Amino acid sequence: MLLTLVFVYLLATIAVGLWAARRVKTTADFAVAGKNLPLIMIVTTTFATWFGSETVMGIPAKFVQGGLNGVVEDPFGAGFCLILVGVFFAAKLYKMDLLTISDYYRERYGRVVEVGCSLIIMLSYLGWVSAQVTALGLVFHLLSGGAISVSMGMVIGVVSILAYTLFGGMWSVAVTDFVQMIILVAGLAILAVFAGQMAGGADKVIDLAVSRDLFKFWPEPSLHDMLFFFAAAITMMLGSIPQQDVFQRVMSAHSVSAATKGPVIGGTLYILFAFVPMFLVASALIIMPEQTQALLADDPQKILPTLVMEKMPFVMQVLFFGALLSAIKSTASATLLAPSVTFTENIWRQFVPRTSDRQELLTMRITVLVFSACVLAYSIAMEGTSIYELVSGAYQVPLVGAFVPLVFGLYWKRASTQGAIAAVIAGIGTWLAVMYMPWAEVFPAQLAGVLASMAGMVVGSLAPQWIANRHAGHHPLVRSA
Question: How far apart are alpha carbons 71 and 408 in whole angstroms?
Fold first, then answer.
């Protein structure tokens, strides 16, 4: 019965998405909803995109193992990313009237940097989308009592998302996100109240969390712990900023005001509401202590689904899986669309010049289909990897490769193409070198990468100017003065 209701829900979201797809006539409609979304929809689509499988299953698992200190990357880093986007980036980018974030790199630095950063951004989506696909596979496997394998569940999930994303693009994603956020928030809120009552009251759950030191946030006052804490915090906080899905939500707004306020409100709500799944898992420590301890040793991601399936009535099961599927589908649809639009607009066009808008729209849809197939294959190959690790690992690539050129390009007038190229090469190269060296246990690879990227930008931008001034017989400081 529960599995049947889930399939009915999937069909209903497909119907809503296809209804919204009727508004798609151009590539701008497909990529950024024709820049027509009001503030409320920017908030809901931002929140729903961020609130994915890792928030419902990955974050609670990390929280119950290591407390708030273990989830600094997400939800805290992830939520503050959206706030930073709204405060420092949204208005500047919105006024440039671009279709993709990679268009900015082309306008500021040229084609080479555009292609390089596009590849970096696209690569980063593999881990994030795979986390959602993996979660869909687990859901169908659990609901069918093992009759549907995890791999087959992944296939079913991807097809259900493709059914509307392929035709409606950002319009379908935004409208379905609006519906799914309502289901998500209502479902998890009701579950939290019910779980609190089962545990003997919310105060009992909070007291248990305090006794286990789960609310400890700051690291130990040692250089090693502080470095790795800081590196974890900036991975999603800064690494998510140069991402097409965030940019799409900014550019889809109908005004600068909506573009700036939407991410700030969405990010704040995300941080606050991410505590609900954490509360649910903490309540499981009281409701089913022995099973929870066993699952902590086996797979902590299964604690919350097990609590719902074995200890809660049918109505609560419906609410939970409705909320979970809403979280997964809203994130997966956005993360399938974003890299596909980037590829068509910033990679494919290097080889095939723009023809008609209709042809461009068809190319975007074909790319969504191909990327979905690639993600599905990658997800099946990575089966068994932690959902939280899939997501967090994905953001190190844009952090070390694309973040510095974006920030310096917007806020430093002397940033140059040579500096951007040096930043990308130094950032990616250093990150890879440190990650596969024994140093990675002493100094975080992503922090080394972003520092090298900043150095590359400064040296690469100033060195040619300094050399030119030397040849001209002028001291660079005199000239700049």
Answer: 29
pLDDT tens digits for 233-281?
999 899 999 998 889 888 999 999 999 999 999 999 999 999 999 999 9
Q: Which of 72-81, 235-244, 380-389 has the lowest mean pLDDT?
A: 380-389
Cα–Cα dist 156/379, whole Å: 13
Superfamily of domain 2-387 in the CATH hierarchy: Sodium/glucose cotransporter (1.20.1730.10)
338, 331 Cβ separation under 8 angstroms: no
Q: How confident is the model at residue 386 (pLDDT cuts 50, 70, 90)?
A: low
Return the structure tokens found at 1: 């019965």
- Residue 301's Cβ-side half-sphere holds a number of Cα atoms within 13 Å equal to 19
What is the number of H-type helices and E-type strands within the chain?
Answer: 26, 0
Tokens of 192: 């939290």
Q: Give mean pLDDT, residues 149-159.
A: 88
Total count of residues recorded for the chain: 481
The CA distance from 145 to 168, in Å, is 33
CA separation for the pair 169, 23 (Å, rounded): 10
Q: φ, ψ for residue 253 (rounded to 5)? A: -70, 150
CB neighbour burial string for 336-355, b if at least 16 within 10 angstroms, e if fewer: bbbbbbbbbbbbbeeeeeee
- The predicted model gives 139-146 an average pLDDT of 82
> Phi and psi at residue 473, in whole multiples of 5°?
85, 20
Residues 12, 9: Cα–Cα separation, whole Å: 5
- 325 close to 81: Cβ distance less than 8 angstroms: no
Beta-carbon contacts of 138 under 8 Å, excluding residues fewer than 6 positions away, are 57, 150, 153, 301, 305
Report the alpha-carbon distance of residue 254 to residue 268 in Å, rounded: 21
State pTM to two decimals. 0.88
Which tokens in the block code for residue 294?
């066993």
> How is the chain split into domains, by residue range?
2-387, 412-481
Note whether 235 and 73 are within 8 A (CB).
Answer: yes
CB 428 within 8 A of CB 439: no
Q: What is the pLDDT of residue 127?
A: 75
First vs last Cα of the chain: how many Å apart?
Answer: 75
